[in-house]
Amino acid sequence: MTIGPTGQRPGIRITARRAGTFCLLLVLLLAAQATRVQFFQAKGYNDNAANQRKAILRYGQPRGAILVGGQPITGSAATGGRYTYKRTYTDGPTYAAVTGFSSQIYGNTQLEGTEDALLSGTDDRLDGWAVWDAISRRQNPGGSVYTTIDAAAQQAAMSGLDGQKGAVAAIEPATGRILALASTPSYDPGSFAGSSSADQQVWTRLQSDGDQPMLNRALRETYPPGSTFKVVTAAAALTAGVVTDINAPTAAPYPYILPGTTTPLVNDTTSCNTAGLDLDTAMTLSCNSVLGYLGVQTGLDKMVAMAENFGFNNSKLDIPVRAARSNFDTTMDQSQLALSSIGQFDTAATPLVMAMVAAGVADNGTVMYPQLVDKLTKSDGSTVQLMRPRSYRQAMSPAVAGQVQQLMTDVVANGTGGRAAIPGATVGGKTGTAQHGVQNSAVPYAWFISWAKPAGSSDVPPVAVAVVIADSSATDVTGGSLAAPIAKSVMQAVLAP
Amino acid sequence: MALPAAVAADRPEPAPPRPHSGRNVELVLVLGAVAIAVFGYVEVGSNLDGRPPADALRYGAALGGLALLAHLLVRWRARYADPLLLPIGVLLNGIGLVVIYRLDRATPHSSAAPTQLLWSTLGVGLFGLVVVLLRDHRWLRRYAYSGALVALVLLILPIFFPAVYGSRIWITIGWFSIQPGEFAKILLVIFFAAYLAVHQDTLALTGRQVWRLRLPPGRVLGPVLLVWAVFIGVLVLETDLGMSLLYFGIFVVMLYVATARIGWIVIGLLLAAAGVTVVGWLSPHVHARVEQWLHPLASIQAGQGANQIAQSLFAFAWGGLLGTGLGQGHSILIGFAAKSDFILATIGEELGLTGLLALFLLYALLVSRGFRTGIALTDPFGRLLAIGLATIIGLQLFVVAGGVLALIPLTGATLPFIAQGGSSVVTNWIIVALLVRLSDQARRTLIEDA
């Protein structure tokens, strides 16, 4: 071995070993990186929105069904594309406000969204053997969602709303089960369930439609409730003891000048223009001056408390689809409180919450948590979860509830709600015609809230309804004329044997 | 000459009366490799169609026939060869065919597996030719210089052909296309081995001292540096980044092995850093690759969807520990290079980390067997040749797998034996054939002396 000037040179065996070790080190680096990507970072990559694999898996099998009255209102169709199946709807527009949509491109909303894990089969509760399923990557077939919707009530609501912009929410007062949830104009969620260009065109058209057909007006939109809110005010005044006898004269003055202003609170009908009207008459005729006065007498705190008992100011009202927050301001001066007490000023409510108002009164003061889902099952029909009625609030005592029921019954029997009367049934209701727009120039919102039970029955009424017509071409836009007939047909659908 | 201590220590103690040539071990392993490939083929069919492919038997027979033929040729003309080399080649090639067939099923408009099988057959044929005809590897030394010249011409030719996906690295005549850079690397390694074997002492021991580095005499280093620079220059011109990186790495490794000068590695790394900086600066293509490597998900945040690297990472991640099973992944989302540069992602997705590590182990075994052969050989040329060939496989694996795993910037090269590409498969079979030849030489003395 030659000795170089810089000393002993390592032999070629040594250098070759070092080079070989270097190559193996490179492979080791690769193994480390593979472990990092496939094990430690895998979840992040799998959950990345740009990763289509979860969508492919999701649409690789038929989606579970959503049912109304035990009958599926959804289905699945093979597409032959990258996403094997797409969602279909048997009567899409009728139930769009209930189901929402499940689109390969645009995601899932409403029940399709909140129950997505179950419907798409990824819910852990569908697993038979969790560990084995994880190893074998077996995907469970999608489970079923049984809704509380009553097909007849839903049909009645949709045909009543037909051609108008509006919404209906109907509740079973004793349980909180939602019997109807309708919004018009509606859309067909099946028309853009796939990923073809036709689907995309439909979506774009729906998005740019000025009538907002995809807006769920029953749940996601609030309107000033107008006079229907007087039910809340009456309940608050009775609970606070401001009024004890609904037929006794009140101290309400006429004209009622809004406190701190010189503006009188005007009435729609001259019959109201008398001082000291009793509450029953005031409700029957829908007198603003009386109820505004009573709201102020009750006081802000008690008015807020009563409104919140019915679901106002709750930004997390999940049925399980989240409803928009209904508003009743918590800081107001007296004049604002007077206006709010007749459902004006900043007061705004979803049809759902106004249905809760009617239902709470009907259920003797107990407001039940509204729910849209009866039960969740696996594809084989075995129950995953059974929903039980939950109490939301005890809004008022049964005695007060009885008084408010009497008020509402009189509205239908003798007052503005006459068009909701059903032969052979006891019906209680309240009309509302809410001004809005600049200088109140827009077509008013026509409201009606009500409940009904067979005449003579002492049971809790089986149905409570809220109807709002947001925009109608009718000339006489009042709750009594436009909304009450729709409420009537929905109640009749439920009452029918 | 006395036996080197390192090799002697490898012999079992006490020495068996008659050492094995390893041919029966090889036969068993080759049949096992064929069985694994056929099993994979059947699994793809079962997972995609619910039944094995109709031609599974024919496919198995063809693969088995080819492998057996290769084995018999080795048995006949290289009976002392390392018994692991051929089985690893068969297994890797078999896995490659299965995965390409699987990807064909996801791209009904283009099927690559039949062509790949044809090229594999040609590759095994050339393997046989080399094993049978090349009696003594030292014969290659005589043609080292002319080989380098041929390699250079091969390498320059694609410049006159149209670019494919931004790189001019193919020679295309009608439906037929080859990638000369793949073949040229063997010729270049032969040239390096021949040149360094002759000049290693001069390179290592003479030259001027500058600070602590001893610079080699330019007279000796000049020619080899020139050849190498021309090769790299051509490849950079053709924007074949993977190959330039590979050629560069092979040169540095061989120079170090021959001269034991750490200085070479230092200079090599400095040159590489300078080169990458300059190229990255001048070429928007390379700059983009580096950006994608540093921020693989940036394009998603920018709302442009997942780029290839992101898609590749998604595929690996989806595979997890155990994989989805052959045929049940979605690596086709990666796009146009799914069967070639990115084929490893399919393996990662469908066979999981487990399968990937097993694959890396196979490559590591092949590379280490190459190095063992080099170390065991006594002639400097053979030694450097074996080491150079093993380095090709090791570095190419690193460049490709590192790129698709986002360990290093993506440069684009074929995964040895597995990726779609005829030139690559044929080249790899020739490399294995040369290693078989060299290992036969290395072990012959040992076993016959025993």
TrEMBL record, chain A:
Gene Ontology molecular functions: penicillin binding; peptidoglycan L,D-transpeptidase activity
Biological process terms in GO annotation: cell wall organization
Record's signal peptide: none
Protein name (record): Penicillin-binding protein 2
Superkingdom classification of source: Bacteria
Coiled coil ranges: none
Penicillin binding protein A dimerisation domain span: 63-145
GO CC annotation terms, alphabetical: plasma membrane
Penicillin-binding protein transpeptidase domain residues: 166-492
Native source species: Kitasatospora acidiphila
TM spans (from-to): none
A family per Pfam: Transpeptidase
TrEMBL record, chain B:
Signal peptide residues on this chain, from the entry's feature table: none
Membrane topology: Multi-pass membrane protein
Cellular-component GO terms for this entry: cell division site; plasma membrane
Primary subcellular site in the record, as a coarse category: membrane
One of the protein's GO biological processes: regulation of cell shape
Coiled coil: none
InterPro entries: FtsW/RodA
Subcellular location: Membrane
Pfam families attached to this UniProt entry: FTSW_RODA_SPOVE
Taxonomy, superkingdom: Bacteria
Transmembrane spans: 27-44, 56-76, 83-103, 115-134, 143-163, 183-199, 220-237, 243-259, 264-283, 351-372, 384-408, 414-436
Region annotation Disordered: where it falls in the sequence: 1-20
One annotated GO molecular function: lipid-linked peptidoglycan transporter activity
Keywords associated with the record: Cell shape, Membrane, Transmembrane, Transmembrane helix
Protein name: FtsW/RodA/SpoVE family cell cycle protein
High-level lineage: Bacteria, Bacillati, Actinomycetota, Actinomycetes, Kitasatosporales
